[in-house]
């Protein structure tokens, strides 16, 4: 009897450990390709958005770390919302956080709305475009010099280099 009890408990514990990992994997673009809802329910402004971009921007997905070309972007310029085109970050705010996601110390004032996100057992602050509602990433208080770290999905951003 005791043995069976332990088996069941063991399975439940494994379920508790693995379920959040499985749902995290489901939410990572690359593992999951289909939208949960019909895209007509989303505020899609840019008709050229890929499915991956839609999953991140409208279903709060996350691109895989290290996959964005913007991690290596060092030119002067501005970063815009890939859905509506609003300017969100200046290149002067970009820094290498080592996380694998494009990171910034500050955003253009007023361009984001934030909300507390409790997914995956963590309390995080999610930010989305104030103009179109698209999700962009999470902001943390562990940036350089005690400042903020905007951890952005590169797929949500459009970089426009400064004209020479
Ligand atoms: Zn936008």
Could you explain how this protein is built, in words?
By secondary structure, the chain is α+β, with helices and mostly antiparallel strands. It contains two helices and nine strands. It has helices spanning 2-27, 51-59; strands at residues 77-81, 87-90, 94-95, 103-104, 112-117, 124-129, 135-140, 149-152, 157-161. The strands form two sheets. It has a six-stranded antiparallel β-sheet with strand order 3-4-8-7-6-5. The structure holds zinc ion (ZN). Zinc ion binds at residues 81, 83-84, 86, 129, 131-132, 134.
Layout of strands and helices, then pairs:
Blueprint (H helix, E strand, L loop, with lengths): L1 H26 L23 H9 L17 E5 L5 E4 L3 E2 L7 E2 L7 E6 L6 E6 L5 E6 L8 E4 L4 E5 L3
Antiparallel strand pairs: 1-2, 1-9, 3-4, 4-8, 5-6, 6-7, 7-8
The structure holds zinc ion (ZN).
The site of zinc ion has 8 residues, from loops.
Question: Which keywords apply here?
Answer:
Metal Binding Protein, Guanine Nucleotide Exchange Factor, Chain A; alpha+beta; 6-stranded antiparallel beta sheet; 21% helix; 3-stranded antiparallel beta sheet; globular; binds zinc ion; 164 residues; 24% strand
């Amino acid at each position: 009897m005791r043995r069976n009890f332990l088996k069941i408990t063991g399975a439940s514990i494994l379920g508790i450990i693995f379920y959040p990992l499985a749902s995290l994997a489901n939410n990572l673009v690359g593992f999951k390709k289909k939208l949960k809802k019909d895209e007509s329910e989303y505020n899609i402004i840019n008709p050229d958005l890929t499915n991956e971009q839609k999953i991140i921007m409208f279903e709060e997905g996350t691109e895989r770390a290290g996959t964005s070309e913007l991690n290596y972007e060092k030119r002067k310029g501005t970063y815009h919302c890939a859905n509506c085109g609003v300017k969100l970050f200046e290149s002067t705010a970009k820094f290498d956080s080592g996380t694998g996601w494009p990171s910034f110390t500050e955003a253009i004032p007023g361009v984001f709305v934030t909300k507390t996100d409790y997914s995956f057992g963590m309390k995080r602050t999610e930010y989305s475009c104030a103009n179109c509602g698209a999700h962009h990433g999470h902001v943390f208080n562990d940036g350089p010099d005690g400042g903020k770290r905007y951890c952005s999905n590169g797929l949500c951003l459009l970089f426009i280099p400064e004209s020479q």
